[in-house]
Amino acid sequence: MQVPASRNWLLPFHRAILARLIPEDGNEEDRDRLVLLAPGLGLRRIVATFLYAYANSKNLVLFLNASASELAGLNNDLKALGVGHDTIRSIHHEVSGKQRSEAYMEGGILSITTRILIVDMLTKRIPTSLVTGIVVLHAENVTPTSTEAFIIRIYRQENKQGFLLAFSTHVEQLAASALALQTTMAQLRLRNVDIWPRFHQYVDRDLGQNRADVTELHQPPTRAMRMIQAAIVECLEATLGEIRRSKLAVEVDDFQAESMLHKAFDTIVRKQLDPVWHRLAPSTKQLVGDLSTLRTLLHYLVSYDAVTFYMYLETVLAANAGEPGRTRQSLWLLSDASNVIFREAQRRLWCETDGSSELVLETPPKWALLREILDEIEQDAQQRSAPILIMTETERNAAQLRIFLAHADEDPAQPGRPVMAASFAEYVAWKQNMAQLHQTSQVPSDTRLSEALQSKVARAPQYKRRRVRGGMTAPAQTHAAHSVHVPIAPAQTDAHLLQDMHTDECTVDDTYFGVIDPGDIVVLHTYHGDDDDAILEALCPGYVIMYDPSPRFVRQVEVYRRLHHQSLRVYFMLYTDTLEEQLYLAGLRREKDAFERLIRQKATMAIPLTADGNVEEDADQRMLRSLSTRIAGGAARHTIPTVVVDMREFRSTLPSLLHAAGMQVVPATLQVGDYVIAPEMCVERKSLPDLVQSLHSGRLYTQCESMSIHYQHPILLIEFDQDKAFTLQSLGEMKHTKPITPRTAPNDLEVQGKLVLLTLAFPRLRIIWSSSPYATAEIFAELKQNYDEPSPATAAAIGMDNGTLSEQAFNLTPVDMLRAMPGVTAKNYTYLTNHIDSVQALCHVRLETIQQRIGAEPGRRLYTFLHTQLVR
Fold first, then answer.
1. Are 737 and 705 in contact, with CB atoms under 8 Å apart?
2. 37-61: per-residue pLDDT in tens?
């Protein structure tokens, strides 16, 4: 196999990685491996090069877990390598089964959704034994219950020669526990793992040469921002302290102040409390929600302007005042620190002096720093002419900076004043609209605006539509640093292309269609992961300004500069002593620690092997497979236990666990039920959210009705999340449950009440409670004992009779009466219901007619029962 030889495509460490994936000596026994790469080091470049080596009709390579943007980026890379457009073909739900079969036989590289692929594997639509190999992205998502693990299990059972490669850049998730990496590799059935951090010897050697000219600029926040941040942190600590004081929340004792700044902190706390969530008081649950709100405020403080931040504060206050079901206002809103937050946030906009209001409109400090950077670039641009790339975290920041740069010269003393004035005018209009929706008395007094202040807003300078030539803000201007705005998307990076920018208050009309000098191009772009490589390659910037910090993009710039040997100056902007700085530094530490833990785990990790060299099953899989030996009381079976599964159920984890338990999983389009585990037994599986929704909509009643008509043993299986409490309601919610009375409307009944009514309506319906998908697999194995195996064709045909199901749905009681009569069985009763209108009409039918419908002996027994007079 050959890889592209261009020196502008791969660095030496890239080639070292590929050499282990595509052995030059032809020894492909050990190429199956998991590759862990630090974000920003060029994973897409490596994957595209590997696929380039297999991009022909002689191979059939399956590509899993790629998003739409990742597929588009990989196809662009493969096109640049010269293998044609859309080399990776996408197989999704709109592609018919016939078209999929043709695509499999044509070969090439196919990106397939996991649900479609597992169904095609089970139905033998895809020649699994002929698959050249499988490539899995986002390997961190492969778990014992994932569909990817199901696919790989079948792949390795039927194909021993094909390769299997997995890639991931989410090392923190794989290092979260001592067994996370080992579990992932066991599910992938891999024995080898390659770990490539930024501090790897090869990586550091390549990127350490001719380092980029990086200027770190630390911008202090304003006094008001410091006070608000300190107050929010105080509220966070107080809220966490209240959670710690809960007797059931001992798991969160280890969290410290630095942990609270982690992006997933509130999610981690909620996960810790999930097992006892039903036992928590409503006030404790509200505190957990407050953690998320306060962390959001910390993030918005440094990412939003003062006006937008204050608007968000008012929405939080309004939500607390009028949110349905809220037992009380959040505790942090009653604290002194909360008063500091609202007071200082308001003072960033206006202040009250001597009974009058004065507009302040504090601009984000980074705006002034950005202006200084552009001034410096303007001076340097006299020696060289090169595009300027400004990177932001969100599109909102990019949109505001576009307006700021386009109008920075309107007020040289306060370059951001026009932008803030326009934002404040929008805020006043928003307040007026809110006042129209709600009465004035419902608006808190401290959030009303005086008429004098509103008049000042009305007199504030507004943006005016201006014409820009060649990216210049005005014909008389000769510099580009402060005024040029040419938005260039990754797919539209031609220097001749100008776009119109429209906002509510500002419009920049680009009407010049000539050639633009590279030094007059300023591009604002948001971070999009590996897609950012494309903007660097297409724009070839001479200056990069990172308005928001991103370790991934820093490495992407390093790789780009090393590949092209281009002079590049990088400006790195960061708020000092803020959440932004702490998150950036803490993120770097966590990543480094995660790589070090993974390296230690690799050195001590033991992957058990079977006799044929494959990875041995883990404990969960062995437990599931042992269930098959208990079917039929442990007696020897001559047939494989079979379960017919509805196509839609392959979105869940249960089919994979049933297969791991040794059962044959047969996909089918079922009209009645989700699982058919015996000819007489049908199961409708419901998760808790689906159960509640089905009960409220009435869909579950119809489903149970259909099962009761067509199966002797209809079953409703209610399956819980294995990581959450095994309960329907919390104790606090149960205290407020309305009593069930004959006058209570069905929509007002709680879940338990509706389930009781369901069992009363369908006496033969059985409800099974399952604590997890693993428990469900064991339950199915026990239910199948002493029953025949279901027929997939018969199960798929049930409910397909023309008009039978809809007509019988309204006559369930007479049908139950009929099926209870002698001679009538689950198989022959439909022959009677399709030709006889009612039980009364059946009593007048001749014996010969009944025997023609259901047989001689069953007909005689039924006729005798109907016409035998009871003796008193």
1. no
2. 999 999 999 999 999 999 988 999 9
- Token digits of residue 810: 């309204």
Q: What is the pTM of this model?
A: 0.80
C-beta of residue 665 within 8 angstroms of C-beta of residue 658? yes
Query: How do residues 88-126 score in pLDDT, each as one tens digit?
Result: 999 988 899 999 999 999 999 999 999 999 999 999 999
Q: What string of DSSP letters covers 133-194?
A: EEEES-GGG--TTSHHHHHHHHHHHH-SSSEEEEEE--HHHHTSSTTHHHHHHHHHT---EE
Residue ranges in 277-408 assigned as alpha helix (H): 282-303, 306-322, 336-347, 365-380, 395-406
Higher pLDDT, 698 or 217: 217
Assign 219 to helix, strand or coil.
strand
Identify the pLDDT of residue 64.
97
CA-closest candidate to residue 688, choices 779, 770, 778 = 770
Buried b / exposed e over 121-132, threshold 16 CB at 10 Å, is bbeebbebeebb
Q: Give the helix/strand (H/E) hosting 113.
A: none
Residue scoring higher pLDDT (503 or 70): 70
Distance from C-alpha of 872 to C-alpha of 870, rounded to nearest angstrom: 6
Domain 815-867 -> CATH class: mainly alpha
Say whether pLDDT at 659 is over 90. Answer: yes
| CATH class of residue range 619-728+744-800 | alpha beta
> To which CATH superfamily is domain 12-196 assigned?
P-loop containing nucleotide triphosphate hydrolases (3.40.50.300)
DSSP helix, strand, coil percent of the chain (3-state; round to 5): 50, 15, 35
